[in-house]
Amino acid sequence: MTDPVLLHVSDHTALLTLNRPQRLNALSYALIDALMAALDRIETEPGIRAVILTGAGERAFSAGADIHEFSESVSQGRAVALRDFVRRGQAMTARLEAFRKPVIAAVNGLAFGGGCEITEAVHLAVASERASFAKPEIRLGMPPTFGGTQRLPRLVGRKRGLELLLTGDAFTPQRAFEIGLINAIVPHDQLLPAARALAQRIIRHGPDAVASVITATTRGLNMTIGEGLDVESEQFARLVGGRELGEGLAAWRDRRSPAS
Q: Is the pTM of this model over 0.90?
């Protein structure tokens, strides 16, 4: 069988490719499990400093959940559907959101449903001019279940989020950029180079500092400002006495670039 997720490493960056192009990279249970396993491997590999996530083929980043598989779970009742579908999908997006290495989505085509929820969960996103986004779950008679009702309004604002969630209408990469879902739109043939360039701009900095920024920001968004400031302080304290902070301060005093 073809691997549902491909992993290629170069320049300290892991390229993860959702690999079901014949099904528009639909998020089957096997694909989600493979993605989680790949993240486990990347997390413990010190030579990998950033992750780029994209879709195989020319048509889709991911068209969302595998409806045939999901429908079978629903037919077996509420407990099975919650266990196999909802909890699996929510665990995937939560893992991406909390990952301590930067995760960049390179959205190469359709990002519908769960594909859009992945885009919402990752830290940064670059989209091809050919990309298209949608939250079409309402057309199935259900809300998004991989975190879309929670992350999208937090990202784009309650009213804009609800408009997308309640209409199910597709929207352009330009719209996605305007509302803050993605960071940039690039020509299709420049998508992966642009994502790699963004990754390099991040990993020139120390991995502990990068991880502390990701953790403080991700956790703090769901807290009061006071609680978030405590997390910020905690992340700073973890760096005190470490090599990165010591070298960064020494380099600033000596007016030179920090040693890697």
A: yes
